[in-house]
Structure formats: C-alpha cells, structure tokens
Amino acid sequence: MSAPLILMVEDDATLGTSLQQRLELEGFRVRWARSAREARAALPGAHPAIILSDIRLPDGDGEAVMRSHFANFGLVPTIFMTAYGDIEQAVRLVRDGALDYVTKPFDLDQLVDRFRDIVRRATPQAIGAGTPLGRSAAMQPVVETLSRAARVALPVLLLGETGSGKEVAARHVHDSGPRSSAPFVPVNCGAMPAELADSMLFGHERGAFTGAAGTHRGLLEEAGEGTLFLDEIGDLPLPLQVKLLRVLETRAFRRLGAAEERGFHARLICATNRDLESMVAEGAFREDLWFRINVITCKLPPLRERPEDIADLMASFAEAAAKENGFPGVSIEPSAIEAALAHAWPGNVRELLNRVQRAVALGANGTLTAADLFPDGVDAGRRQASGGDDIDGSLSDIREAAERRHIVAALAKTGGSTKDAADLLQVSRTTLWEKMRRYGIDG
Ligand SMILES: Nc1ncnc2c1ncn2[C@@H]1O[C@H](COP(=O)(O)OP(=O)(O)OP(=O)(O)O)[C@@H](O)[C@H]1O
C-alpha cells in the first residue's frame, strides 16, 4: 500500500517546509499547495487521505476551498490550522464538516498522532471477517448473533460505548456474508454538514444547486449491493430521518435534481452509542425509523466487561505495531497485562489500541512494560478501575477478582497452555481448571 497522501494548503514557506519534512519523515506523502488557486487545481485528482489547510490564504480562504470540494467530491478528513483570532471561524468549519482545527503554534507530535489515527480508521484491512471479535464469555452471544445476521439481509442495529468495536462488528457482518465482494460504505452521520448531507447521501445531478459543477454519486448509490453502515445514527437530523425512512420503505431514492428514482439495494447496518429509546420518547428520533432499523439488535460489551480478551488484543496490536515500526517483535511483560486488566478502559478497544501503539513506538528493548502502557501512572489506571477511592466490594470479591486477573495473565503468558499456566501459578492443573470454570475463563 502506498503512503497516505496529505494535501497541505499553506502559504507560509517556513512552516510549510518544516511540516512537509516532518510528515515525510513520518512516512506520509505530502502535496503542497501554496494558495487557494493551487489547492483547487490539485484537489480533484489528488484523492488525499487528509487535507491540512491554513484558513487565511493570499488569494482567498481555506473555507471556500473546503466547501466547494466537499460539495463536489464528498468529505475528506480536513484539519485547519488557525492563528489566534480565527477560532470562531474554525469552530464553524468543524460544524460544517472539517474534522478539527489546531491553533498555531501547535504540537507536531500530536498532529502526527492524529494523522496516524485518521489513516488507521480509514484503513479497512485491519478488520473484517478474519478479525477475531473476542473469545470472552461476554462476546460469545455477540459473535453468534453477528454470524446469524451475516446470513440474512435484515437491518442490524449495533449498540455500545464509543470504541467498543461497533464498526469492526459491522465489517465483520459484511465480510462474513454473501455481500463481501460488494462495497462496504461507512457513513458518520454525526460528521455530515447539514447543507451537504442530502447530496452526500443521495448524490446530485449537475446544476442541482449552486456549486454542483458535475454529477455526483451519493453514498447510497456507492453502497450498491453491499452494505451501508450508518454510524452515529442517533445524530441524524430529523429531516434526514424522514428521507431515510422513505428509502427503507420504498427501497428507492432520487439524486438531487434528478427526475428518475434509483433502487436502493444495499443492506443497512446502523450503530450508535446513544440511547435511541429515550431519544424516541423525547421526540428526537423518529419511532417509525427506529422500528425499521431495530430489527436485529446487538450490544457490544465495553472492554472492562470482557477482560479475557485484553491479553489477546494486546498481543495482536503489539505485533502489528512492531511490524509497522520495522521492529522484529515485542514481548509483553506480565506486569503490563496485570496493569491492563486493572484499568477501566473508558475509551474501550480504541484506547487499548492507542496505548499499545504508543508503547511499542516509544518503548525500549522490544519489551512492553506497564509503565510503557500507562506513562501517566499505573495507579491512575487502577484508581479508575476501582472507581476512585471508594472501597467497594468485600475482601473475598477483591481476592477473587485479583485471582481471576492473575489466571488470565498467566494463560496469556503461556499462550493458553493450562499445564504451563498451572506451573507458573504453582497450583495443580485440576485446581486451575476448577478456578477457570468458576470465573468463566475460556480454556
Ligand atoms: N475485535 C477487534 N479486533 C481488532 N481491533 C479492534 C477490535 N474491536 C475494535 N478494534 C479497534 O478499536 C478501534 C475502535 O473500534 P470501532 O471503530 O469499531 O469502535 P466503535 O464502537 O465503532 O467506536 P465509535 O462509537 O467511536 O464509532 C478501531 O481502531 C478498531 O480497529
């Protein structure tokens, strides 16, 4: 795969040069436009993974460039660079579809981390049918429901906290079913600027509105016979909820400005971390749409409720991160697994992935320690896990939780061998089996 392309729009030669050098060092390709005119000329054929743009340009502003590009070619993750005083404009830009803005002078390390995250999220190869969703007891009913869902074309609604793996689950359903060779089209409903949302979803004909220079296929059309994944469906504005409902009822839609209808053939998967039922009760989400999308419902458990998966995920994230950084391999210290098991993971699998990637990239000697994983302090993680200074649970609850964590860590260290884990824990294999059964740990 070629290096991700960043289209940088910046008229300041000094800042532009240092950004270009640093980004290229980090493995990105950079195309540098020094004015609004150059950006407009470069954008249509460039297909950048990310746009990094100054707001004020000598011959215009980045805002106008972004709007016309989004209107004609769809959203591209865009980060604006602003000087003090442009903040109001930057906030408006984010509301209109830009991903974020940074205030000059900004921290380049953080910007590079952000870019990596954007590229990773947009790269589907890390997930799919081949991704083990999890071996834990809490994930088993989820895996079964998703496998059954893959075989039928009914709508699926995925619920769960942010970062718990809803998009991974959606791709899994798509990749495991008969539509796997057709497109999987993810749409972040929360990130669609209101005035472009119609055109992004349904497409438009040339001249359908000011600025519509050519025809544009919308996301419904892009999905073809594949899967349309509507992430953050709870953020879909009410007028669009009405339009989506009509599409689901008639299985047809119309491009903006078009006379004829087109068939909608894709399978629908929706996801949200919001409480749709309460939204329905409050009138913020249409009940009829909720009935339509809520056919097969599946709740992804938060990572803290599936501790048996933590060691597996750490191992696979560490291996991938080592490969990405050109390291021969990484060994994970038991203390790191212990610390991970004690952490509350408010950001779920995404937080684990980010922590492991950072730990592998910055750690030394090919070993991942608890301190690498929690540079902010292992104790901070523990406190969160146990709910601050509250003394919660009896002594035996706490002893059992610690015993369980220890067994999971030993099994992870021995690659699942109960014999070696029993040796490590200095108990008989029978004792180990009994405890595994009692704590619901898979062998
Ligand atoms: N089983 C898994 N195996 C590998 N990676 C995973 C797994 N589950 C989640 N991830 C990774 O964790 C991150 C978050 O997952 P995902 O985007 O699916 O979560 P989400 O619930 O859709 O989050 P949000 O609600 O914020 O959209 C992604 O980088 C994803 O690749």
Describe this structure in words.
The protein is α/β, with parallel strands linked by helices and 443 residues long. The protein folds into three domains: 5-122, 3-Layer(aba) Sandwich (Rossmann fold), CATH 3.40.50; 130-299, Rossmann fold; 304-439, Helicase, Ruva Protein, domain 3, CATH 1.10.8. It is built from 20 helices and 18 strands. A five-stranded parallel β-sheet has the order 2-1-3-6-7, with helices on both faces. Strands 9-12-15-8-16 form a five-stranded parallel β-sheet. The protein has a two-stranded antiparallel ribbon with strand order 4-5. β4 (56-57) and β5 (60-61) form a beta hairpin. The longest helix has 19 residues, at 395-413. It starts with a strand and ends with a helix. The structure holds adenosine-5'-triphosphate. The site of adenosine-5'-triphosphate (ATP) has 20 residues, from α7 and α15. InterPro entries: AAA+_ATPase, AAA_lid_NorR, CheY-like_superfamily, Homeodomain-like_sf, HTH_Fis, P-loop_NTPase, Sig_transdc_resp-reg_receiver, Sigma_54_int. The modification 4-aspartylphosphate is found at residue 54. It comes from Aquibium carbonis.
